[in-house]
Design brief:
Mean pLDDT: 95
Helix content: 40-55%
Strand content: 5-15%
Oligomer: single chain
CATH architecture of the largest domain: 3-Layer(aba) Sandwich
Number of helices: 14
Number of strands: 12
CATH topology of the largest domain: Aspartate Aminotransferase, domain 2
Distance between the termini: 47 Å
Radius of gyration: 22 Å
Shape: globular
Structural class: alpha/beta
Bound molecules: pyridoxal-5'-phosphate
Largest sheet: 7 strands, mixed
Length: 398
């Protein structure tokens, strides 16, 4: 390149999935039929009325102009009603909710609004890789905190508090947790809010998975004292099967929201009106709609558990969310080798846990975003390669 990119680009790597999907694409071009159980992109449809609303607004000539930076009032009100109904949280739609193009962009806006170069940011390990890359882009310093099976994938707050927290500005949490599938709870959020308050740390919960295989909904914002110190991101990507539509929100005290808007309004304009109107409709889906989506996930989850069994992985059955997280057998060298072997031999792609951090190194993650038929086929293929391997072992070839 004749022109050098900015130094900050060197601080982030190409997203693991973008590299892996390119490899899968090459394998497919060479004729391999790959089943991908990697990414959590819901394959079921949004509700019929959501799509009908999109269409009905898209044909109106007045729908195509720029939209307000803060989203249409009907969308903010719909988010507010949704939070009251499911999370028992009262949010003022005028100034405590900011619609976003998915929660991922919110991670960037929050970081740019609150993290100065040199500020430390507490990031879960394992956790969603975007928290780290965005912190790097914002000039913050990553401070990973451990989440491990032994402590139920909850942070060890006492250990954290023994360390120097004076430069920590922000802490990312994500319950229900991806990738471990751990639920949030009132007690956990109370402890975290108290910790954040004592140490003057902005606590952000990224909450896109509450509605998948779970009906015990918790918001960080329902915790007493959370308004002063906490924000929550939410999204329609997984909860309403609308990942490609790009609709999410951030909620919290109006002062924090104003600062986030200061950043966001300089980067993009409001979302396409028909998308916003469709999201209003989606947020009013009856409870039976969530149940019907979950009925499909329940069946798929059973097959995914069987895949984990075939792979001799241990997993916690109480996991919620769009994935199953399993511990690889002791005799397997690494999750990366295991995943590569499964991809090459069975032509099934599974996410290796190391991409979520060091504490994910002995784990793999399987997505529920594939039809039952595909999942069963994946299981059959893996079983066949395992059988073959066992046979070879018996014959002493490996
Ligand atoms: C923990 C977590 N946060 C945020 C996102 C991004 O969601 P959105 O589509 O709302 O940007 C994902 C997507 O995979 C995720 O797993």
């Amino acid at each position: 390149m004749k022109v050098k990119p900015a130094d900050r680009t060197g601080k982030v790597q190409e997203y693991y999935f973008s590299k892996k999907l390119a490899q899968i694409d090459r394998m497919r071009k060479e004729g391999a039929d790959i089943i991908s159980l990697g990414i959590g992109s819901p394959d079921q449809a949004p509700s019929d009325s959501t799509i009908a609303n999109l269409i009905s607004y898209a044909v109106r000539p007045e729908s195509h102009g720029y939209q307000s930076y803060i989203g249409i009032p009907a969308l903010r009100k719909a988010f507010s009603d949704w939070y009251r109904k499911y999370f028992r949280v009262e949010l003022n739609p005028d100034n405590e909710i900011l619609p976003l193009m998915g929660s991922k962009e919110g991670i960037m806006h929050i970081s740019l609004a609150f993290v100065n170069p040199g500020d430390e940011v507490l990031i879960p390990d394992p956790g969603y890789p975007t928290y780290s890359s965005v912190t790097n882009l914002a000039g913050g310093i990553i401070r990973k905190y451990d989440l491990v099976e032994k402590t139920g994938w909850h942070p060890d707050i006492e250990a954290l508090e023994k360390s120097d927290l004076s430069r920590v500005k922000l802490m990312w949490i994500n319950y229900p947790h991806m990738p471990s599938g751990t639920r949030g709870s009132t007690q956990l959020f109370e402890k975290l809010v108290a910790f954040a308050t004592r140490n003057n740390i902005l606590l952000c919960n990224d909450n896109p998975y509450s509605f998948i295989l779970n009906n015990d909904y918790h918001s960080l914002l329902e915790t007493e004292g959370a308004r002063e110190i906490a924000l929550e991101l939410n999204s329609l990507s997984k909860s309403h099967n609308m990942a490609g539509w790009r609709i999410g929100m951030v909620a919290g005290d109006s002062g924090y929201i104003k600062e986030i808007l200061r950043v966001k309004s300089n980067m993009d304009s409001g979302m396409f009106l028909p998308v916003q109107m469709a999201a209003v409709e989606a947020l009013h889906n009856p409870e039976s709609w969530y149940e019907s989506v979950n009925t499909v996930y329940v069946r798929r989850r059973k097959t995914v558990e069987e895949i984990m069994d075939v792979l001799c992985c241990n997993y916690d059955k109480s996991q919620v969310g769009l994935f199953l997280w399993g511990r690889i057998p002791e005799n397997v060298a690494s999750c990366e080798d295991y995943v590569e072997e499964i991809l090459n031999e069975a032509h099934v792609f599974i996410t290796p846990g190391f991409i979520f951090g060091e504490n994910g190194e002995r784990y793999i993650r399987i997505s529920l975003c594939a039809t039952e038929e595909k999942l069963k086929e994946a299981k059959e293929r893996i079983m066949k390669t395992r059988r073959k391997e066992k046979g070879e072992r018996r014959k002493g070839r490996i």
